[in-house]
Automatic annotation (TrEMBL), chain A:
InterPro entries: BFD-like_2Fe2S-bd_dom, BFD-like_2Fe2S-bd_dom_sf, FAD-dep_OxRdtase, FAD/NAD-bd_sf, G3P_Oxidase/Oxidoreductase. This is FAD/NAD(P)-binding oxidoreductase. It comes from Anaeromicrobium sediminis. It holds the Pfam family DAO. Residues 398-452 form the BFD-like [2Fe-2S]-binding domain. Residues 3-352 form the FAD dependent oxidoreductase domain. It comes from the Bacteria.
From TrEMBL, chain B:
Keywords: Oxidoreductase. This is Pyridine nucleotide-disulfide oxidoreductase. Residues 4-298 form the FAD/NAD(P)-binding domain. The keyword Protein biosynthesis does not apply. GO terms for molecular function: oxidoreductase activity. The keyword Oxidoreductase applies.
Length: 478, 433
């Protein structure tokens, strides 16, 4: 019997799991997928918003700015790439300028620090590649970019290091509340826990309805993106949003923490909670829309396109509260944008609710907020590179030639707590396959290393889900 | 700091030929750096035959072709390092590289030959919409799995792109027991050699769907189906022509891109069309003493041509080290137009030409009964009848040294006179493609 079960290992679930390990509790983190961060967290804009956008009085408004301010600490503790590069909201006409000024006002109410409305000249000076039509912009220096899945993985790893049990490929099929505990049915048997955090993303309403009345609904809302080669990653220096107008929110153009360029998303309400397809119509749409920001994006440098599903709540705001029908069951649902930005504060807020219910919590005296540093070979100096290869020769073998990722880094990311077990999981952690060849060269080598480290037959190594097999059988002569 | 006269980056056919030729031209202390586990490059996974017809007048497999050069290299005592990756190279010709036995190395070269080859374009680069399941491979990756690792990548296959690797993999997968349903090609003609269309598709009854593209990939875990549609002249899918093929695998053969990340980072000037370095008659780039050859310069259709080009680069590197490469004298530029997409070399210094200059080029479409014309400084020096030219088959022209005696800054122009040319549709009918 666990004290707490966290359902869903996305950014909210992993933050909460790690926060819970600060107390003396028996915790389990459950996810249906083969990896941490495999839902909404793996496919979004990767932006830590400044926090001017949300209306004051909402949970989004309360938690975004707060979460943003918490990012430096957690990313330092967990050695996760995070860059506070600032954001622009650009305007190309007086109507849009009006909306920029509204955002500024809202930002003041939300206590966003150091915002500034930039003149046309200032915009051009700071971002020379933007469209000539821009007449001004809102500048928020506290906005940042992060690698959402690396953060989520790091949180899970740290939670694991601090005693949280992690059960992947464990799908919740049903749940019932008994006197003082919840009994969770999964594809791998029953799990019992006294308290539940429901962080199930686009499935949060379904999980909620297992123990209570339907109080909200999640509408999966798809957004499609283009990601471009690093050679065009420095086209812009800040996250560039378009001013919202009556016809919609526009698309963003932003560098990623690894130096690529990200363009997107659109928004499309769907019934299907697994619809991660891209469509040529929508990709065409975001490309066209991006021209308002700049016409200098060379889409021939596109590395890949992808789509993500936002967990859009019917209530219009984050739902972070104890269920009225099942005491001890805390919903952390509808975490759509700015969920990533707010995540550290969402966890704190959710834990506060938990502490009000469970008043005799004891601290975990052994809690260690840091994790073993990640060696990112290409970021080392020449001397450090020489040194690390001497210590471990696997750092002398480059597996991914586009991103220059060594065998040492891949082996390390497999063998950590919450380590990668699939080709995509390795790609998210240390980037082989993220580059311009998209795994054409390194794919077979990564599979070979996975098979060796996991002591598996290479035919059992999958791309992502258990069913996403890569090899079918040995060849005739093999 | 390690010191070498010539460092060759890449141990595929281009690098091997360049290193051997440098040695034959009187230079010692040569190093070949190869990032993979063996010499020979992509040839090692090309176990089909048809290599070496020009070079050896016989049909070899890829590994056999490579082996001849590997043996020669070894016999000459040329040093090479495997599993070694160049991380950085600069204008002073200092290289940093790593491997697991030597660790981190700084290497100073007098001359460098870039021979890194090319990579395949991917699904992402051509933005095929749909789901992102397992089972989408570039043809080359599939070839590595099947021919070198000994694993099949699927049972029911659709191939997009009729480049040579795609065609050859259609046959290979068939021979291994897979069912290849179709090869779809965006262009109204194949990008592969005619002999490969006959030997890899026609012989096995695999249909080639010209002017077709993929509009959707189905299947969330593993590929379950591919939707193919016909395209109009602007390559836009024609609504209503979609056809779904049930399959578990999609192979992509949608073009090769020279791998020049290292060259660009070192400041080598690039040609926008070839995506390779701008080179002169000596295969030298804008950085003095840095040469380039093979698919890193432009994508070749036959390895025999790679070998010939790389010999020039290797010999030039040796000349450079021995101070025999002439820098003074006039400089001409080459320019392809009117049907000629690009010409290599882009720069010519007549001083360094012994007897003849070879120009290599590709045309931009399929043409029949055209004339290829060469003009130097506005004066016609050559005119050749061509019964058939196609983008998939590289063309070459020989120019006599005496024709090159003209003013500095003059242009060498090559173009097609197309009055007599037949439209590509007619070509397709005739070839029954």
């Amino acid at each position: 019997m666990y004290d707490v079960a966290v359902i869903g290992a996305g950014i909210a679930g992993t933050f909460i799991a790690r926060e819970l390990t600060k107390y003396d509790l028996k915790i389990v983190l459950i996810d249906k997928d083969t990896d941490i961060s495999n839902g909404t967290t793996k496919a979004n804009s990767a932006i830590v918003h400044a926090g001017y956008d949300a209306k004051d009085g909402t949970l989004k408004g309360l938690l975004n700015a707060k979460g943003n301010a918490m990012y430096d600490k957690v990313c330092t503790e967990l050695d996760v790439p995070f860059k506070r590069i600032g954001s622009f909201v650009i305007a190309t006409n007086e109507e849009e300028m009006e909306s920029v000024r509204d955002l500024y006002e809202r930002g003041i109410k939300n206590n966003i620090p150091n915002m500034k409305i930039l003149t046309e000249e200032e915009v051009k000076e700071m971002e020379p590649n933007l469209s000539k039509d821009i007449i001004g912009a809102l500048y928020a220096p506290t906005a940042g970019i992060v690698s959402p899945w690396e953060l989520s993985v790091a949180l899970a790893e740290n939670a694991g290091d601090n005693g949280c049990e992690i059960r992947l490929e464990t799908e919740v099929t049903d749940m019932k509340k008994e006197d003082d505990k919840f009994v969770i049915d999964t594809n791998h048997g029953e799990i019992e826990a006294k308290y539940i955090f429901n962080c199930a993303g686009v499935y949060a309403d379904k999980i909620n309805e297992m123990v209570g009345e339907k109080t909200f609904e999640i509408v999966p809302t798809r957004g499609q993106y283009n990601i471009l080669d690093k050679s065009v990653g420095s086209l812009v220096n800040h996250v560039i949003f378009q001013a919202p107008t009556k016809s919609g929110k526009g698309v963003l153009v932003a560098p990623t923490v690894h130096g690529n360029l990200l363009v997107g998303p659109d928004a499309e309400g769907l019934d299907d909670r697994e619809a991660l397809e891209t469509t040529s119509e929508r990709i065409g749409f975001i490309r066209e829309k991006s021209r308002k920001t700049t016409d200098k994006i060379d889409f021939r440098k596109t590395i890949t396109s992808f789509s993500g599903l936002r967990a859009k709540p019917s209530t219009g705001d984050f739902i972070i509260e104890e269920s009225k029908d099942a005491s001890g069951f805390i919903n952390v649902a509808g975490i759509e944008s700015p969920g990533l930005s707010a995540a550290p504060a969402i966890a704190e807020y959710a834990i506060d609710i938990f502490r009000n219910i469970n008043t005799d919590l004891k601290d975990n005296e052994n809690f260690n907020p840091t994790r073993k540093p990640v060696i990112r070979f290409m970021e080392l100096s020449d001397e450090e590179k020489a040194e690390i290869i001497k210590k471990d020769s696997r750092y002398g073998t480059i597996i991914c030639r586009c991103e220059n990722i060594t065998e040492g880094e891949i082996v390390d990311c497999i063998n950590r707590n919450a380590g990668g077990k699939t080709v995509d999981a390795i790609k998210r952690r240390v980037r082989p396959g993220m580059g311009r060849c998209q795994g054409g060269f390194c794919g077979p080598r990564v599979m070979e290393i996975l098979a060796r480290e996991l002591k598996e037959d290479i035919k059992n190594i999958v791309k992502d889900s258990r069913k996403s097999y890569i090899l079918t059988e040995e060849t005739k002569q093999a | 700091m390690l010191n070498y006269n010539v460092v060759v980056i890449g141990g595929g056919p281009a690098g091997l030929a360049a290193a051997i030729e440098a040695k034959k031209n009187g230079v010692d202390n040569i190093l070949v750096i190869e990032r993979d586990r063996e010499l020979g490059g992509i040839l090692q996974q090309c176990i089909h035959n048809g290599f070496g017809l020009h070079e050896f007048k016989e049909e070899l497999t890829g590994p056999e072709y490579a082996e001849r050069f590997i043996v020669e290299l070894r016999n000459m005592g040329i040093e090479y390092k495997l599993d070694t990756m160049v991380l950085d190279m600069n204008q002073n010709k200092t290289i940093s590289a790593i491997n697991s036995t030597d660790g981190f190395m700084n290497i100073q070269a007098k001359a460098i030959v870039l021979a890194m080859g090319c990579r395949e374009r991917t699904r992402g680069a051509i933005s095929i919409p749909g789901a992102r399941p397992a089972g989408v491979f570039t043809a080359g990756t599939a070839q590595r799995f099947v021919n070198m690792e000994g694993y099949m990548v699927g049972k029911k296959v659709v191939i997009l792109g009729s480049g040579d690797i795609g065609l050859i993999m259609a046959r290979r997968m068939t021979l291994e027991g897979a069912q290849v349903q179709a090869v779809a090609e965006l262009m109204p003609f194949s990008g592969g050699l005619t002999r490969n269309i006959v030997q890899c598709l026609d012989d096995y009854g695999i249909p080639l769907l010209l002017s077709h593209t993929i509009t959707e990939i189905k299947g969330r875990d593993r590929v379950e189906g591919i939707v193919i549609a016909q395209v109009d002249e602007k390559f836009k899918p024609i609504p209503g022509t979609e056809k779904e093929f049930e399959c578990d695998t999609l192979l992509l053969s949608v073009g090769l891109i020279p791998e020049n990340e290292l060259s660009v980072q070192a400041g080598v000037d690039m040609d926008r069309i070839t995506s390779g370095p701008i080179v002169n008659e000596a295969m030298e780039t804008n950085i003095e003493g840095v040469f380039a050859c093979g698919n890193v310069v432009h994508v070749h259709d036959l390895v025999d041509f790679v070998t010939a080009e790389s010999r020039r680069a290797g010999a030039s590197a040796a000349k450079y080290v021995n101070n025999e490469l002439k820098k003074e004298g006039t400089t001409l530029k080459t320019e392809g137009k009117n049907g000629v997409r690009y010409i290599v070399p882009q720069v010519v210094r007549p001083e360094n030409i012994d007897k003849t200059l070879d120009l290599f080029m590709r045309v931009d479409n399929v043409y029949h009964n055209v004339e290829m014309v060469v003009k130097i400084d506005g004066k016609e020096v050559k005119r050749m009848k061509k019964r058939h030219v196609a983008p998939g088959e590289m063309e070459s022209v020989k120019i006599k040294k005496e024709d090159l005696s003209c003013a500095d800054g003059s242009k060498i122009e090559v173009y097609l006179e197309k009055e007599a040319c037949l439209k590509k549709e007619v070509y397709l009918e005739k070839e029954g493609a």
